[in-house]
Design a protein that fits this description.
single chain; Neuraminidase; four-stranded antiparallel β-sheet; 29 strands; globular
Length: 375
């Protein structure tokens, strides 16, 4: 995915790429999560690190997609195909909180992202991104006494497809809700600012376009293929992970109004109208989904086809932020990884995704603990 036009002069970012020796041209795939290609790059520059500790938090989950933390340290976990939410707490069995009405699980769609209100202790509000019969949408609900109730749509009309539904939602440091969407299998949508597909959206907790958005609409950034990860560094720098098509997956630094180039560019394009990614991977090494910023300040990225977690060191802040050489964690140990979420205690919860397009292992799907260095 290539880079985006920002208001004002275009800028080129530093690209910390996992470069390939003798890059092999790879054919596009119809799904972001297809089986790994048989043709592999000749070599990959990377480092591999061991990180503790891999303790199971929960097992036996059916297509889990998101873990969103409540103030008490427990997490809401969405089950994509069942359309249900469970509450997971370390050392206890998951608690079924109920089914979210209106979920239509087809292909890569279903009950996807979850977010907890920044003022949850006052309003008990929780938010979900789901695929309905005709669209993708964001709904708001209440969590009372381990039951979800009062589900109401606050943003509808996001195009849905069998593939590329995006689905991650997260409250930013400004307490506005950010919504990641995919192109729903129609690449032309990403470059259409009258269309909600292929974008990162920014809305208020009531579903309106947030004040300060660049286009007087819900759109925050555009030209995306399929964003499934959103996170912020301590200084407020926003990051997003993005599935590539045939060659490059991406980690992007997100700026309001920027155009990240899909479908004109995938990976680094160096074109003045688009914003280049900060880091790229060969698609067989990543297929990045959920991301989180760890207590060490690094970005941790879930890799589906890459069957690992990628750690990207970050130094500096603001315009001087720099990404270092990506490091690979747990390669092949847990299979496909769907999400990485930052827990209040400084650990990371890693959600596997082997019950969908994977090879389930005993206890799958599971949530395991990852401890960043120094935590």
């Amino acid at each position: 995915m290539a880079a985006a036009a920002e208001p004002g002069p275009a800028r080129r970012r530093r690209l910390a790429a996992l470069t390939l020796a003798g890059v092999v041209a790879l054919a596009g795939c119809t799904s972001d999560e297809a089986s790994p290609r048989t043709t592999e790059p000749a070599s990959t520059e990377t480092t591999s690190i061991e990180v503790a500790d891999g303790t199971d938090i929960a097992t036996g989950l059916d297509v889990p997609w998101e873990a969103a933390f409540l103030p008490d340290g427990s997490a809401l976990v969405t089950l994509r195909d069942e359309g249900r939410v469970v509450r997971v707490r370390s050392g206890a069995d998951p608690i079924d909180l109920g089914e979210i009405p209106g979920v239509v699980a087809q292909g890569e769609g279903g009950l996807l992202g979850a977010a907890v209100s920044p003022t949850f202790e006052q309003d008990q509000r929780v938010y979900f991104y789901l695929s309905a019969e005709r669209d993708n949408r964001v709904v708001r609900a209440r969590l009372d006494d381990d039951r979800i109730s009062g589900v109401e749509p606050i943003l509808t009309g996001i195009p849905k497809g069998n593939i590329h539904n995006g689905g991650r939602i997260a409250f930013g440091p400004d307490n506005e809700l950010y919504v990641a969407t995919g192109d729903a299998g129609d690449t032309s949508r990403s470059q259409d600012r009258d269309d909600l597909a292929g974008k990162i959206l920014r809305i208020t907790p009531d579903g309106e376009a947030a004040p300060g958005n660049p286009f007087d609409s819900p759109i925050w950034s555009w030209g995306h293929r399929n964003v499934q990860g959103l996170a912020w560094s301590e200084d407020g720098t926003m990051w997003a992970s993005e599935f590539g098509q045939g060659d490059w997956d991406e980690l992007n630094r997100i700026e309001p109004g920027d155009n990240y180039g899909w479908p004109q560019v995938e990976g680094e394009g160096g074109e003045p109208d688009f914003t280049d990614p900060e880091v790229v991977w060969a698609t067989g090494d990543a297929s990045p989904s959920g991301i989180a910023v760890g207590s060490d300040g690094a970005i941790y990225i879930a890799a589906l086809r890459g069957e690992s977690v990628w750690r990207v060191p970050v130094t500096g802040s603001g315009d001087d932020v720099r990404t270092g050489t990506p490091e690979r964690i747990w390669q092949g140990r847990y299979g496909r990884i769907r999400d990485v979420s930052a827990a209040p205690d400084g650990t990371l919860w890693v959600v596997t995704s082997n019950t969908f397009r994977g090879t389930p292992r005993d206890g799958d799907d599971r949530i395991v603990v990852l401890r960043p260095p120094g935590s």
